[in-house]
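Data availability (excerpt). The following record was deposited with the supplementary files.
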Amino acid sequence: MKLKLFTFLLTVCFAAASCSKSSLTGGSENFVQISDVVPDVILEIRYYSTYNFIGTRIDGYLEPTALLTRQAADSFKVVSEDLKTQGYRLKIYDAYRPQQAVDHFIRWSKCAEDTLMKSYFYPMLDKPVLFEQGYILAKSGHSRGSTVDLTLFDMSTEKEADMGSTFDWFGIESHPDYCGNPETGEYTGGQLTETQFHNRMILRNAMLSHGFKPIDEEWWHFTLANEPFPDTYFNFPVKKIQ
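Predicted structure:
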């Protein structure tokens, strides 16, 4: 009996290891550059730069480009066309994110003395709670290839629309329900102005209308609801697809 149990457990372990390995395989053949699908998209790839919550270029970002699965990019194009009729272009901060970048986040979180960018992105929080409160995850939806972080660019002012908080601000100010009800679009007052909340709702409504879903912690984060790889976490680097 013990031998059979041991054999069963060994089989399960090998199967789990195999699944874990396969979840990180695969290349960019099912991905496209967003700028090829939406030529007027604006790219500010924060993790390729040093202006991010860590303060260094993040592992896996070899070029300042943005990738998505073909399905997500096609839906993103429809969002862009919708918002252009309202006077906006789209600006992307991040899209596909390799698992190696997420691993970089995890290593950083364990280095208590590294708080270089604290005053810019998480002044009210200590690093350990960033995981507890869902701002950083050990497995990110970005690594599945159908998630995008973005904002609006107002074509009339030629500036970013004022959203009331910066991308990757870790705090309640980034929550979609801060100072209002995102389900009804009602502004309830508070630290955000009515215009700031309204701008968030313009982005949110366009994304939700064309197949994307939001999360509760970040106004800028959306995932294709019918994503093609819901259980796969890719690890190829961010660079132009040849």
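Summary of structural features: The mean pLDDT is 90.
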